[in-house]
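Section 5: illustrative case.
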């Protein structure tokens, strides 16, 4: 088996006071993040979206397979088709598929089956996971696909927030319609649908609170 080449890793290091400053600044940016469902139609340069996806592509993955595809959607007709398909599934979810406990938990967030943001947001990013790759017609297995794509989406959301845009992690279930509308190959399955853009002029979000450190960290 051919051995991989290696390059020397050049670590990025800072003095401790700079480390504290950087991590506190980043926490401040991320702590301000909220899920937004009301978007402005104000355009966003495609180059910014491309750079955000490049950041997502730096995420670690099983055996470095990078088992993800990010579909950038700005075409109004395709966005309309996605909204119609998503609302059809969501209407069934809210009117029979979801348990009452689930509906009760969602009620405090004020959500329903209608998803106008899928057309208003300037971009939709449809994330697909690849359980295997096709190399010259031969299947090559990917590893830790769910975990790898989930980490990449975390990078993506952090990059969106850091850039000054907002997003929503939308998961209409089932999402097979995305594969059909976007005509993705059989080895790709929809993972997440993320509207991205600027917030509307006046947006209200639930007054939620994050768990404090002592509730999410355990020391040994």
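Designed sequence:
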């Amino acid at each position: 088996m051919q051995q991989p080449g290696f390059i020397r890793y050049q670590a990025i290091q800072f003095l401790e006071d700079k480390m504290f400053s950087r991590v506190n600044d980043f926490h401040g940016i991320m702590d301000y993040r909220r899920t937004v469902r009301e978007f402005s139609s104000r355009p966003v340069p495609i180059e910014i979206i491309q750079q955000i996806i490049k950041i997502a592509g730096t995420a670690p993955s099983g055996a470095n397979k990078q088992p993800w595809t990010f579909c950038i959607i700005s075409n109004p007709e395709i966005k309309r088709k996605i909204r119609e398909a998503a609302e059809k599934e969501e209407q069934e979810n809210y009117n029979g598929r979801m348990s009452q406990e689930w509906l009760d938990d969602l009620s405090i967030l004020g959500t329903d089956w209608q998803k106008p943001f899928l057309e208003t947001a300037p971009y939709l990013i449809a994330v697909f996971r690849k359980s295997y790759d096709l190399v010259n017609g031969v299947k090559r297995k990917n590893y830790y696909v769910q975990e790898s794509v989930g980490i990449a989406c975390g990078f993506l959301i952090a990059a969106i927030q850091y850039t000054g845009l907002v997003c929503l992690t939308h998961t209409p279930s089932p999402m097979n319609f995305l594969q059909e509308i976007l005509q993705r190959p059989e080895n790709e399955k929809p993972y997440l649908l993320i509207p991205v853009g600027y917030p509307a002029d006046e947006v209200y979000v639930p007054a939620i609170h994050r768990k404090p450190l002592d509730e999410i960290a355990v020391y040994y």
